[in-house]
Specification:
single chain; alpha+beta; Glutaredoxin; Glutathione S-transferase Yfyf (Class Pi), Chain A, domain 2; 2 domains; 4-stranded mixed beta sheet; 4 strands; 9% strand; binds glutathione
Length: 211
């Protein structure tokens, strides 16, 4: 049994959670905040969420976790069988993370009512324009982001764009999904997956103020 540590507001957490759901793997969730406490750093070396606890030990970093899940339970597959096609999915995920998600993240303050400095907004406009152009060269969005097969890139990208899209809009006036041919329709298609619907419902419940 896998224990998933993290919180439903995290896009990385939801990428792992929806992969577990897609694969029908048994898991339990333990609400965990990012932390620099020594005890948590022993589980997740940068103190970030998510991390998973397995029979073999703890594992952090979303991409590594997604690969582990694929190896631990190959069906239903979230990667193609062909080695080159698998590598292309990883290339896409890594490109979205490095050149879109991590750039847009610098502006996430606006999503939570905080001020983002004008120079940061200018950086975002420059770097996101370049990043989404790179992703556009790799993404197919027809019907899925890597092409014919649904893969963990769809999950990773869906949750990344859930925050990157409003950050790009609010900080730099960019429509990231709109600049990917078929991007908006792809996003809506992924939102129809049962795994995503469940994670969105859990996220909405976590956002509700407790009475
Ligand atoms: N590279 C990490 C990134 C995970 C990440 O940035 N998680 C955020 C929450 S969405 C976090 O823990 N932030 C706290 C921090 O950066 O210290 C991964 O792939 O899992």
């Amino acid at each position: 049994m896998i224990t998933l540590h993290g919180a439903p507001l995290s896009n990385y957490y939801n990428a792992v959670k929806t992969a577990l759901l897609e694969k029908g793997m048994a898991f339990e969730e333990v609400m965990t905040r990012p932390s620099q406490d020594a005890a948590y750093l022993a589980q997740s070396a940068m103190g970030k969420i998510p991390c998973i606890q397995t029979d073999a030990g703890y594992l952090a970093e979303t991409h590594a976790i997604l690969d582990f899940l694929e190896d631990a339970q190959p069906t239903p597959a979230l990667l193609p069988a062909d080695p080159f096609a698998r590598a292309k999915v990883r290339e896409l995920v890594q490109s979205i993370e490095l050149y879109v998600e991590l750039v847009a993240r610098r502006g996430y303050g606006t999503l939570f009512g905080r001020e983002v400095a004008p120079e940061v907004k200018a950086e975002l406009a420059r770097d996101l324009t370049k990043g989404i152009a790179a992703v556009g060269k790799l993404a197919k969005c027809s019907p899925w982001i890597a092409g014919d097969a649904f893969t963990y890139a769809d999950l990773f990208a869906y949750w990344a764009f859930a925050l990157a899209q409003p950050s790009g809009q609010q900080n730099a006036g960019l429509d990231l999904l709109g600049s990917l041919p078929g991007g908006q329709a792809w996003y809506e298609r992924v939102a129809e997956r049962d795994s995503v619907k469940r994670a969105l419902a859990d996220q909405a419940a976590a956002r509700k103020p407790r009475t």
